[in-house]
Design a protein that fits this description.
alpha/beta
Length: about 375
Amino acid sequence: MKAIITGGGIGGLTAAIALRQCGIETRVYEAVKEIKPVGAAISLWPNGVKCLNWLGMKTELRALGGAMEYMSYRDHQHNHTMTRFSLDPLVNSVGERPYPVARAELQEMLLNACGRDSVQFGKRVIGVESLNDGVRAHFEDGDIAEADLLIAADGTHSALRPWVLGRDTERRYAGYVNWNGLVSIDEAIAPANQWTTWVGEGKRVSLMPVSRGRFYFFFDVPLPKGLAEDRTTVRADLQRYFQGWAEPVQTLIARLDPQTTNRIEIHDIDPFDTLVRGRVALLGDAGHSTTPDIGQGGCAAMEDAVVLAMTLQSHSLGIEDALLRYQARRAARVEDLVLKARRRCDVTHGVDMQQTRAWYDELYQETGERVLAGMRETIVGGPLG
């Protein structure tokens, strides 16, 4: 059996590794000439970690992951601790740790595991057609490729999603802008083993530890889309938006490198039930584009890859039947993740400031039980428990 995978990001590479382990010959076609990660880092929660463990990358992943042992929320003005608790109860409950990792290093690990010779760069897919016993992909440069099935992992702007759905979809602006990057760990700003978040005014600033003595940082600000802001104005923009915030936030703004700080307007897409048409299946952001507010975008793509491989390996009624079973296992799960992230997004970013202020008040009473219970529910919903 042969599979075409369009898209060489996290989802596409993970799918290639998973399918190959099931004996399926794969070829990955990536639009860009060189993979450049979108975003500085990613929080891999235990459901995503388990998928990579299942694919044989347990040791490599641990070398990339940060030691995130605690979680803390702090008041934006005075740096008062609103709540702080250990992640150990979550880890002990679900049987695995979270690992924040730099995106570039994660993609390098996946590319090495996939095999660089199985990835063709500079191949932008523009269309697909069904054959009697397979599929044919068409690329922008005029090339074509044929296989038994095609996995569309070509991201939130997927060229193949309209063909699968039979209609176009619109991206929905979530109402906020995210700046993210990497900076050296400084315990004068925050503990090296802690996910630290300052909240206030419907904004947030977060730090997560990744490997090699670095923090992954991100700033969120509710803003109109389309503002004329880029890397040339990063520091001045953040100083303006976070004027009056606590000293550690000011220190972080002073320390970041504008040339490696990303600015992203956050979008998602309303969830849909259809992930498959014939021998073509959507995977990752192509099938469920979400905001990053519960950290499940990359994890969900990894879940897709594992479920897809398991289903193709364990069913023998044909490829189209197996893909429909993949759809049945994934559609409700990914809809739940998209909508959970959207609800969390709205509370965090002040869509209703009365609700957001109530959340701030709740954080002062939070022992960790409620937050970790919500995380556990999300994690155990994955294919590996």
